[in-house]
Every structure is written in structure tokens, then in C-alpha cells.
Amino acid sequence: MRNTSADRSDEFGVRRVSPAGGTSLRFMYRGCTPLTRYYRFLSTCPEIPEDHLCAVLSRKAGTDALLVVPAADPGRTIALGSTHPYRPGVARVSESNRPG
Q: What is the pLDDT of residue 49?
């Protein structure tokens, strides 16, 4: 899925997480400040905790993890989100993003 930001300055894509997304998630996490890591992931570790990464990459039925990637660099993750079913055909989206 390809989208444009609200101010139309940047195009980005949204796709489901797959095991191949682990590398880009690690880079995104490393790029976060300790404070951002704490607020978004409840951890200040410089590396994403392996159990958290495994949980994201192997989502349970009923939720999907999503990667937000810039259209110009689809190999780079700029945000991690997830969907939670609300009712048939409707899902709530939540996110954990890298500010700036």
C-alpha cells in the first residue's frame, strides 16, 4: 500500500511484517534515542530485545504488525504499527514510530 503524508511532502508504504523485516526493525530501533525506546518499547537497551523482536515477527492470529517505509527507500523502516480487529472488516491501528 502506498500513501502520502498529510502535508503531501513524503510518500510512504505500509506492509505487513515478515521474518525478513527483522534487519530493518533492528536499524529503526538503534536509531531511536534512549528516551524514545523507553516510551515506545519500555526498554532503554541499545539493541531491540530478542524476545520482543521475535514476538513482532511472529504475530499471533488476530493482529498484524505493520512496517511503514519511505517510498524512496523501501528497505528502511520508519515506524512499526499493529492492527487489532475491532469488528468484522474494521481494525484499529496503533503505532510505535521513530520521531523526526
A: 86
